[in-house]
Design goal:
alpha/beta, TIM Barrel, 286 residues, 14% strand, seven-stranded parallel beta sheet, 11 strands
Amino acid sequence: MKIAGVTCPRVSAHGGHSGEFCLHAKDNLADIVATYAQQGFSWIGLTEHMPPPVDDKLYPDEQQAGLKAVDLLRQFDRYVQTARRLQQQYAGEMTIYVSMESEFYAGAVPWVRQLQRQYNLDYLVGSVHHVNECCFDFSVTEYQYAIEVAGGLDAAYCNYFDAQYAMIEHLRPAVVGHFDLIRLFDDDYPRRMQQPQVAQRIERNLQRIAQLGLMLDFNVRALLKGATEPYVTAPILQRALELEIDIVPGDDSHGVSSVGVGLDSAIKLLHDAGCPCQWRKPVKQS
């Protein structure tokens, strides 16, 4: 797309999930990739969830379906094989990276590294979906429970950004996923992020991202969930640009119908904020 005469390629570093390999998504991966190609994307990163190392780290829908960690590992193996075939199929039309979205909880770090080596993944999206070992991203009920365990929203925010900092230090992901996801079900997040104990952690994490040369996911899926702005919020975006952090769009699609949704408006928002919109491609971690 062009904005004020500047060509801003359509890309998605956090390309999300398919119903073929994720219970809370829809459609098969080939159809989703075909939709990216039809929409003229320059490059995409396929980012299915990592399989959990043990059964008690399954998402609630996976537990309800009676799945086991070993089932999800086999599913992940099929995902990588399918993604590699699509990578070759579209080589002359669109660059595809075969990636995964990580988790961060007890036992995750060695497991992530093992998966990276075993599957020779092109890069990693480093995300945090747990606070105090409680998954907060799946539903309002799960979110509220995680907040209770943390001892309130302020504490949960602090614990989230502490976990994110540890994830950054241990995994050094090419892309830090939906940086401020902890605000998911908090209508009062603008005020809460200004609390000194929270703001200090946000600043610390952004500075570390800048020092390590990592990229920040500008994730538009928040808009589909009713949010008024993507992940990250406008003040965090402005600070990231001041620190010269590379920002890259991610549609975090969960099916054909959400491919590219909100992306053009997000790219315009980035352009208007001063982002050059010449997206750096993710690089494999050593």
